Amino acid sequence: MRLIKRLLVIRTRWEAMFVIYALALGAITRGVDYLEQYPGWGGWVLFLACTGAVFLGGAKIMELTRPDSGARRRKADFIGARQELA
Model pTM? Predict the structure, then answer.
């Protein structure tokens, strides 16, 4: 079980890019299916929703895999931490 958990952890930015690429391929395939099933504006809206979800998810994955340095953090991150401690 421990070995399987280790395989599912994304550690580097390269691994993150491969995961995002796989998500994007699936989203485009699903989006094309939506275009065939729902011709017109409805299909395009669903297509854009699929690709937009990958864009947002990919941004979060890339953010979580970057090396953290204190200089790159936002001031709001520190303010939120102070409020949680109080």
Answer: 0.69
Is 19:61 a contact under the CB 8 Å cutoff? yes
Q: What is the pLDDT of residues 15-57, one digit of tens each?
A: 999 999 999 999 999 999 999 999 999 999 999 999 999 999 9
Is-contact 10 19, C-beta < 8 A?
Answer: yes
Q: How far apart are CA 4 and CA 10, in angstroms?
A: 13
What's the token pair of residue 2? 């421990």
Task: In whole angstroms, give the CA distance from residue 85 to residue 1.
Answer: 35
**Residues 6+ positions from 28 with CB-CB distance below 8 Å:** 50, 51
